[in-house]
Design a protein that fits this description.
Layout: H1 4-28, H2 39-53, H3 68-80, H4 85-109, H5 112-123, H6 126-132, H7 138-154, H8 158-172, H9 178-195, H10 200-203, H11 205-229, H12 239-246, H13 251-254, H14 261-267, H15 269-274, H16 279-296, H17 298-313, H18 332-337, E1 339-341, E2 343-345, H19 347-363, H20 370-388, H21 393-396, H22 400-413, H23 424-433, H24 445-457, H25 461-474, H26 480-491, H27 495-508, H28 512-524, H29 528-541, H30 546-558, H31 562-575, H32 580-592, H33 596-609, H34 614-632, H35 641-656, H36 661-673, H37 677-690, H38 696-707, H39 711-746
Antiparallel strand pairs: 1-2
Length: 748
């Protein structure tokens, strides 16, 4: 139990921290990004949505990212629906608890004053508040790590080590960097047990319990990854690509790649370049690329490590998802608590004093205590885990609360340093803030792209388009806003604008999928020649893609090039024989071009494959009848085997669709040409019932009545023919006159 002073200190810190975080959430709720998670947050939300709505075991593949945070989100979604306020509220509570743990840990190792000062600074630490409002695992990881350190610093009972191992496993399932600290922690624990007088074998008990607790948490995830993916992946398989991003000759470029088309191209590199499909092998592939760079350019690699070490200590907040400084536009609170202008506040102020504090602590009696050494080891190990990969504000955050403690200790150490040594303070301030630059208050291209995406999700296309245009202005080589803006114009049927945007995108990127989309948009705009040219380019790049040949055939058809159209359709069917749509188009093309035998062959295949589709049977029957009529050369049609086949198709069609006019007309005409007038009459009578506006059916029925000796019925039908024909012409004339009046009134 906490003593009274510690209890009241904890309550004060918690209250202040929670108040500030709730105030930030209130401001953040007005941001369009609040209800539209983007970048990594969107990945976590999509995974959580899949877990809660589809399967709690997840997708049938090893986890891409550590799974604890998506599962926590999924549980909240399952309980309260997809509510984005509740997880942020819980993170605000965690953020306040982080400040309390900072106070308690500092009180245990440094004393009450240092702990309280660090905790109060943590309460108003802008980046900690910011990440509490993001749907990312930052705050849970910070909380778990601090709780682990606090428990290690305050007790040494054996059951506690099992629980600490459990916490270590949970932390690894949140952010896996803690795994690098695990062997250091086990070594420290063994050393501390021996220091307390335990025999070597007995000293192993505490580390063993901790390792067992950690294993009990991680092992089910490893087993699940193997069960669903037949692949041995400890927690997740993104370690390889993350290591490559931070360790290659193009570090500045790869660390700025964010989720989108360029990111997908990078992720798919192992499959594309080496045919690798297994998750663990993909991760090893990226590790291999980095090792090739390290072994080939060891001096460059050492220089890169030094640069990343400098970035870790530099005061500005390096973005990974979104720019933290641009988030200030949605929050007055953040505007006060996070900024840079010569000095990068707050980290640019914290880290110089933290370095001073680390030095002073190392030389102090507190630094020689087991708990003090543990805290030093944690900071050093966690910093190394970040520098080994790549540095961003988000990944640096778990090291911040311990650094705040060292910074407070450093401030106190100023009173005891000799006066000449005080020159270290301005030097460190200068070094840690050099190169931070000024804030980009207008936001970069990615900020505006994601704002556009958020507005699009909210159903506000005009606002979305405005931000997409701003993104394009800021970075014309950034492709995603071109595509999203083109899609918006396409939905609004501003096809010419969409076409222009697709073309501008293709000026900077070679992307056959987008070129295909450009061709589709040209097709919708009836710019058939352009579409044909574009489809030809795509077909040359992807000759085995059946769909492109089908589209190409259609554009050739629309530009009156039937030979090219039929060749494209035939190529489509070679690649995809099951494409009934393309076979139908080819059959119609053959029919229109007078290639009746080929058309009949294709319609035969269609009706065999899909006998329930009446249109295939009707067209097949019509073609057979037409061919037999040509053979008969104007004489009456005999009852041949082929015409019997046509008759069977038409009868079957009438059974399938009794209200279909076409099949009644075709079968009635066949009977009439064969002289089977009594059989034709019911069909035309039914036709008039089905399609009363078809005045031509009356004259055919009149002739059939006349041939059958039903003179009065014939006269009635001839009269109906004349009456309906006049009515049709009058209606057509009236419609034409009405359209002329509309044009005169409103203009063409």
């Amino acid at each position: 139990m906490l003593e009274n002073r510690a209890r009241w200190g904890s309550i004060a810190v918690f209250s202040l921290a929670l108040l500030l975080r709730l105030g930030y959430l209130y401001e953040l709720s007005d941001s369009p990004l609040f209800a539209a998670p983007v970048v990594d947050a969107r990945t976590y939300v999509e995974e959580a949505r899949y877990l809660s709505e589809v399967s709690w075991t997840g997708k049938q593949a090893p986890f891409w990212q550590p799974p604890l945070y998506p599962y926590a989100l999924a549980a909240l979604f399952a309980l309260g629906g997809e509510n984005y306020y509740l997880p942020r509220l819980l993170q605000a509570l965690l953020g306040a608890m982080v400040c309390v743990l900072t106070y308690l840990l500092g009180r245990q190792i440094f004393g009450t004053g240092i702990g309280l000062a660090a905790a109060l600074f943590a309460a108003g630490y802008g980046p900690l508040i910011y990440f509490g409002g993001e749907l990312l695992p930052v705050l849970p990881a910070v909380f778990l790590n601090l709780l682990l350190l606090y428990l290690l610093a305050t007790g040494h009972s054996q059951p506690r080590y099992l629980f600490i191992g459990f916490l270590t496993g949970l932390s690894a399932l949140t952010v896996a960097n803690i795994l690098l600290f695990l062997p250091v922690l086990l070594g420290w624990l063994y050393w501390n047990q021996k220091r307390e007088g335990h025999a070597p074998r007995a000293a192993l008990k505490a580390p063993a319990l901790l390792l067992i607790g950690c294993t009990l948490v991680i092992a089910p995830v490893t087993w699940r990854n193997f069960a669903v993916g037949d692949d041995l992946v400890l927690i997740s398989h993104n370690a390889g690509i993350n290591f490559y991003i931070g360790n290659n000759a193009e570090y500045e470029r790869t660390t700025t790649i964010r989720p989108g088309r360029e990111w997908l191209e990078l992720v798919e590199t192992p499959a594309r370049e080496a045919g690798i499909e297994k998750a663990s092998e993909k991760s090893r592939y990226f590790f291999g690329l980095s090792w090739d760079y390290i072994s080939a350019q060891p001096l460059d690699f050492m220089e890169l490590l030094a640069y990343k070490g400098y970035l870790f200590l530099r005061g500005d907040e390096i973005p990974r998802n979104l720019d933290l400084y641009y988030a200030r536009t949605h929050s007055r609170l953040l505007s006060l608590l996070m900024w840079k202008d010569g000095l990068a506040f707050p980290f640019g102020l914290v880290v110089p004093f933290a370095l001073l504090g680390l030095y002073a602590f190392w030389r102090s009696p507190e630094g020689r205590s087991p708990e003090g050494r543990l805290l030093l080891l944690f900071v050093a190990t966690y910093a190394a885990s970040i520098v080994l990969f790549f540095v961003t504000s988000r990944y640096r955050m778990p090291a911040v609360p311990p650094l705040l403690l060292f910074a407070a200790f450093g401030v106190r150490a100023l009173w005891f340093l000799p006066r000449p040594a005080l020159i270290a303070v301005p030097v460190l301030l200068l070094l840690c803030n050099a190169g931070t630059g000024k804030m980009n208050r207008d936001g970069d291209a990615h900020e505006h792209y994601w704002l556009g995406y958020a507005y699009e999700q909210k159903g506000m296309p005009a606002n979305a388009a405005r931000h997409y245009r701003q993104a394009i202005e800021k970075n014309p080589s950034f492709g995603d806003p071109f595509l999203n803006l083109a899609a918006l114009h396409g939905e609004a049927e501003h096809l010419d604008k969409a076409i222009d945007l697709y073309r501008r995108y293709l000026d900077h990127h070679q992307d056959e999928d987008v070129r295909f989309q450009l061709g589709n948009t040209c097709l919708l705009a009836r710019r058939y020649s352009e579409a044909a040219e574009i489809y030809t380019q795509v077909a040359a790049a992807r000759p085995k893609w059946a769909a492109i040949h089908g589209r190409l055939g259609y554009t050739h058809l629309m530009t009156n090039r039937p030979e090219l159209a039929s060749a494209a359709y035939r190529r489509t069917l070679e690649l995809n024989p099951d494409s009934t749509l393309v076979r139908y188009q080819l059959a119609r093309l053959y029919a229109n071009e007078g290639q009746t035998d080929q058309a009949i062959g294709e319609f035969h295949k269609l009706q065999t494959r899909m006998p329930q589709v009446s249109e295939y049977r009707i067209r097949l029957a019509d073609l057979i009848i037409e061919q037999e009529q040509q053979i008969a050369d104007g004489t009456a049609l005999a009852q041949t085997a082929r015409l019997a086949e046509a008759e069977a198709h038409l009868r079957h069609t009438i059974e399938l669709a009794p209200q279909a006019a076409h099949s009644h007309w075709s079968l009635g005409m066949l009977y009439a040409r064969q002289g089977r007038h009594p059989e034709a009459i019911p069909l035309f009578e039914k036709l008039i019932e089905i399609a009363p506006r078809d005045y031509q059916a009356h004259i055919f029925l009149g002739h059939l009545y006349q041939r059958s000796g039903r003179t009065d019925d014939a006269d009635a039908e001839f009269e109906a023919f004349s009456r309906k024909k006049r009515a049709y012409r009058l209606e057509k004339t009236a419609r034409r006159e009405f359209e002329t009046q509309i044009k005169d009134l409103f203009g063409g």
